[in-house]
């Protein structure tokens, strides 16, 4: 195949990435006019669209050469992919949040989250042991209904927390969208991938 295959996270990251590509002179018309198609070919690459966690899986197994995915997926799932570089969109932060007047004094703290691995690792580094309640949906409900003392979640604007009477208690760390690559593709398709990757580089955001 003479073009890179790129897996894109559907939704907000997809829209931000398309804008990012357009600013760099890429042909994005097929991406904008795709309708309900899950696979699209442009002048410069083939693209398909999937959930973030599935993007990482497709890249890991070599179905896609590159992937655009939130850093939260990489930290939580730790797929066997090459984390190439950060991208200048999708910025948000992990935080511990809860009801403003709650202060767990006795017993082990109970934390509700979609990210048990990230949460466990964060508190372990602080020398704390917590009980994790794994949720898939709106974690903001957990402290309100007494399922957990606090939550760990991604915060962008903080509006959802505020509307549900919760506050950020502790800032954890910032994340962004990332460009990831299949390890074998980087070796076998170097000639077609590296010019593509170089177009993504934004010096001020590279860590």
TrEMBL record:
It catalyses: 1-(5-phospho-beta-D-ribosyl)-ATP + diphosphate = 5-phospho-alpha-D-ribose 1-diphosphate + ATP. Its EC number is 2.4.2.17. Pathway: Amino-acid biosynthesis; L-histidine biosynthesis; L-histidine from 5-phospho-alpha-D-ribose 1-diphosphate: step 1/9. InterPro entries: ATP_PRibTrfase_cat, ATP_PRibTrfase_CS, ATP_PRibTrfase_HisG, ATP_PRibTrfase_HisG_short. Keywords: Amino-acid biosynthesis, ATP-binding, Cytoplasm, Glycosyltransferase, Histidine biosynthesis, Nucleotide-binding, Transferase. Its main location: cytoplasm. It is found in: Cytoplasm. One of its GO terms (biological process) is L-histidine biosynthetic process. It comes from the Bacteria. GO terms for molecular function: ATP binding; ATP phosphoribosyltransferase activity. Coiled coil: none annotated. Gene3D superfamilies: Periplasmic binding protein-like II. It holds the Pfam family HisG. GO terms for cellular component: cytoplasm. Residues 54-199 form the ATP phosphoribosyltransferase catalytic domain. It is an enzyme of class 2 (transferase). HAMAP family: HisG_Short (MF_01018). Heteromultimer composed of HisG and HisZ subunits. Lacks the C-terminal regulatory region which is replaced by HisZ. PANTHER family: ATP PHOSPHORIBOSYLTRANSFERASE, ATP PHOSPHORIBOSYLTRANSFERASE ATP-PRTASE. Catalyzes the condensation of ATP and 5-phosphoribose 1-diphosphate to form N'-(5'-phosphoribosyl)-ATP (PR-ATP). Has a crucial role in the pathway because the rate of histidine biosynthesis seems to be controlled primarily by regulation of HisG enzymatic activity. Belongs to the ATP phosphoribosyltransferase family. Short subfamily. This is ATP phosphoribosyltransferase.
